[in-house]
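EI: anyone free to look at a 248-residue chain?
SC: sure, send it
EI:
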Amino acid sequence: MAKVIWHGLIVVLLTVVTQIGGIAWLVGLWFRRPFLWFLPIYVVLTIAVGFIVPVFGRVPLPCSADGALQSQSYLYCALNRHYVTPEMYDLATDLSDHMEQKFPGTITQTLDGGFPFVTGFPLLPHLSHDDGEKLDFAFYWADENGEYLPGVNRSLIGYWGYAKGPTECPVRWSDLRWDFPVLNARWPAYEVEYQRLSVALRYLAEDVRTGKILVEPYLSERAGVSHDKIRFQGCRAARHDDHIHVQL
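SC: here you go
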């Protein structure tokens, strides 16, 4: 019984984190040493999903380190968290092309999108990334001299490396508004590159495909952009001064 519970917990964990990882583990149980078989099975399934998923209305975002649109980390692709609808894919591509035209050499980086299958399947810890119509973009960052840093972020995964600004939200243990002060003290002292942020926010807000943009109010104010689509996510949701949340 303990063995069944152990494997069950592994399946649940892998499913929550990658969606298809639980299936890979179950297939591996047919072999003598499932732990050794898990990775190759998972890799094969991940590659296969990229070809199958368009039938289900999702497409993968770019995973390579080339081009104006890139994944901030290979981790998002490895965990199958980079799938979006074709319309969101086009919006992300158009944004990156626009930014590269305005500022040659600019790299627009994507973070979490969604899982490949099943509308309504949660992409934790996000509250709404469950249909391929939401996508997070990393900020454009600059060094202490104000020089843009292409493809560079404050944190290793694009999240949790916060900009510095005011908030009126109270500290509550039950909220998802994590501060991670120890981590942020260790990250480089980069600043948001507001010129690029301003252009990106304005482009997204004026695009008819965009339904909502979530970002901390002080960032849009500093960027000089105001629009009905640009909103505050609320105090109970995760902070949005480390990324831009966009949904159709």
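EI: The chain has eight helices and ten strands.
SC: 👍
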